[in-house]
Amino acid sequence: MESNLTVKAPTIHRARLAWSLYINYFIHGFGLIILAQNMTSLGAAWNSPLKIVSFVISGVGIGRLLSYLITGFLADLFSRKAFVLLGMSAYLAFAIGIPFSHNIYVAYFFAILAGIANSALDAGTYTTFVELNGGNGAATILIKAFMSAGEFVLPLLIAQLTANGLWFGWSFMTMAALVVINFVLILPLSFPLPNQSPAQEGSGEKKVKPNWVTTIALVLYGYTSMAVMIWFTQWISLFAADSLHFSDGQAHFLLSLYSLGSISGVMLIFALLKRNVKETHLLISMNVIAVLALLGVLVGTSTVMVQVASFVFGISAAGGIMQVGLTLFMRFFPHHRGMVTGVYYFFGSIASFTVPLITGVLSTTSMRAAMTGDLVVGLIGSALMLVVLISERGRHHG
User: Fold this and answer.
1) Which residues does 308 contact at the CB level (< 8 Å), separation at least 6?
2) What confidence tens digit (pLDDT) does each residue in 323-336 have?
3) Does the keyword ATP-binding apply (predicted)?
4) Angle CA(121)–CA(179)–CA(166) in degrees, nearest 5?
């Protein structure tokens, strides 16, 4: 029997598989912003105002909310590869369908499909990286770097199309071509067996079972870790212009510094995880640093201080710490990694839906009130990670 099991074990081309999965997230970087970047052209194509185009974009968030729990649960029942291919197929349909849609209802369907693509890719990819690396989640952090690269390249491509008077749809066709090429590359590859408990944890720590307190704290962290980033990117420029009296250029530069910090944070966190720094220690320290950086933005007495604080906030809050939280969550539930991913990012999707509503209400008081709300969310996130750390230590000593 043992020899039969050995024969059935798939041969994994680790480097090829990892690169193909990362390329998917470069493409996903396109998918995150391609509708917003083409709003004017899409409005003209659909003969609709920008308000209607914005409504269509909201379909992406609806697609995520509808599908995260389902794809996460099913990814544990079926293969990871099936959900990666499902996500790629959905993105292909989206990329081809949107520029040829002449009806906003059809376009809304394709936008929902993009949200489903996002959730299917997450369910199949994050789990695969953890299983590919024996429980170590360092590789998942680089996903964010490839997403950022896609978000960087797409606006340059659209700017070139516009400058040369070319059809806006070529940006979607480029996305579709990348999906097809990567589909061909990934199709023959084998994936690791799903939901295998790692023989040895990357950090050599004793395995412990989570209690309900730890589980709830990590689920809620799925919300706060996403909310703190969305909150900042939505309001930092407006806050800087209104409350700090920055010029328009200075206010927008803060967001650029945040993005640079995010890329730097990815490299830093990846290096720390490779050195087997405990996820709980990393989560506590990065969340506390993010809170201090937000405090620096709010009470900044000089332009340089606010700029440094924005950069540090990018490193600590947007450098992949959300992915670290997911890796820790999956470590507690090694036989339900797909379901855990779905639940975690479902709460992240709730954040993307509710933060604009909450901040909109706060902004009626003042821009400072809106921005201070982000500090409160950061403090809640830090408290949740403190709960996880205390609970984990209690079980080790219990």
Assistant:
1) 296
2) 999 999 998 898 89
3) no
4) 130
The reply to whether 104 falls in a domain is yes
Number of domains in the chain: 2
Domain of 88, CATH number, reads 1.20.1250.20
188: closest CA among 13, 7, 23, 25? Answer: 13
Residue 292 sits in the same domain as residue 366: yes
Instruction: Check: CB of residue 297 under 8 Å from CB of residue 236.
Output: yes
Closest CA to 92 of 144, 24, 39: 24
Return the structure tokens found at 13: 């081309």
3-state per-residue secondary structure call for 59-89: HHHHHHHHHHHHHHHHHHHCCHHHHHHHHHH
199 part of a folded domain = no
* 56 lies in the same domain as 104: yes
Task: Name the token pair of 252.
Answer: 């927008």
DSSP per residue, 208-270? ----HHHHHHHHHHHHHHHHHHHHHHHHHHHHHHHTS---HHHHHHHHHHHHHHHHHHHHHHH
pLDDT tens column, 101-146:
988 999 999 999 999 999 999 999 999 998 888 767 788 889 988 9
Q: State which residues form the domain around 40.
A: 12-186
